[in-house]
Amino acid sequence: MTNATPGDQSQKPTYDKPHQQPSSPASDGKVAGPVLINLADVQPERVRWLWAGRIARGKLTMIAGDPGLGKSFLSLDIAARVSKGRSWPDGTAGTCGSVVLLSAEDDLADTIRPRLDAADADVTRIVALDSIRDIDRKSREVVLQSFSLQRDLPSLELAIERSGDCRLVVIDPITAYLGTTDSHKNAEIRGLLAPLSAMAARHDVAVVAVTHLNKSSTMTAMYRTMGSLAFVATARAVWAVTKDKDDPSGRRRLFLPVKNNLGADQTGMAYRLQGTPAGDGTAVVAWEPDPVAITADDALGDHQKARGKGSKVEEAMYWLRGALAGGRLLADDIKQRAERDGIASRTLDRAKGELGVAVDKEGFGDDGRWRWSLPDQCAPDAPDPETLAALDDVGALSVDPEGNGGSRGDEQPENTKGRQNSKDRQDIKDRQSPERGDEWGVV
Prior knowledge:
This protein has 443 residues and is an alpha/beta fold. Helices cover 28% and strands 18% of the residues.
């Protein structure tokens, strides 16, 4: 170090190496202060890929699309390939490892396991994080609770460690695991996803999160994912799943890049869902080998223009089922969230009528508040929504709405009682049945 000239107090000391810094109480590792990393001490590394150019290890990747297009089939196909190290649809070499699944929408026994078997997965290398075991503070009894990214990330990390060679975590859909986080607030979503991304980097695992698209047809693909833009900003790659508008059969799906910060290849791919030779009703993803050059903006924009009024009502029904999956919510909150996701008030009212949504009022006069719930959730002791997960996007149900439009009464409690008879409930269950989903069930 070169010393300052005696008597010249204004001259600052210089250092032999540019990256040397004077010691200070804030940087000695013993007290609070900035953690500084000089880039001369950072060893450059190549990006490690799960699927070369498309899904990176140690990073968060998002897959977004409308209901019924095969997103869950797609995620399970990816899991099956990883479990055996099979090559990818574009011919690139595969990576073998274990997989951790979080699925809030599909049953393990009658949906997920048959789909994995059909996809030729090694199911001994795939585990599902079903719930979290905890101790009730009052009764001291063991209780099971739903997984939350906000609260239970250490449990996910433990599941990754116990699998030994985990290379993939699938979260489907991510909006079902947000806890009390508001999916429309950037700061809250960034605060939730930053630890998830850090965990992925620590364990060198690819995290693939499935989500849905909003209804704003005027927006570019970058702004079409449900909720906050922070989902797209945090993910290193985002892929959109949409129908091929030029396919006369209506069965061809496009897997297109919305954002790919780490990969040079910006082309997409195409696939169809086709039945298995066993003829047991289970489908598999059949990929096409050739790349697809159409952009996500073009595919989603044209697709949105082609959608009819009936389809919008059906999608609003799907959205509303998910929003109410955890219990009753304030009507004003539902309307505000629907507006943010591009659902018109008139469309929401039609969806409400088609679903037979129950309406009840708490309190009296000007202090009373209207709440909505699904027909089989209108018990007086329904939990307060403020203690529930933020299900303002899609929630924990996987359904493929079959609504045919038509309007019902407004928020009149006396009208809702008649909707709760057994016939109406059976109609709702029929509409929610995966067997009535687009092509091969809702995914």
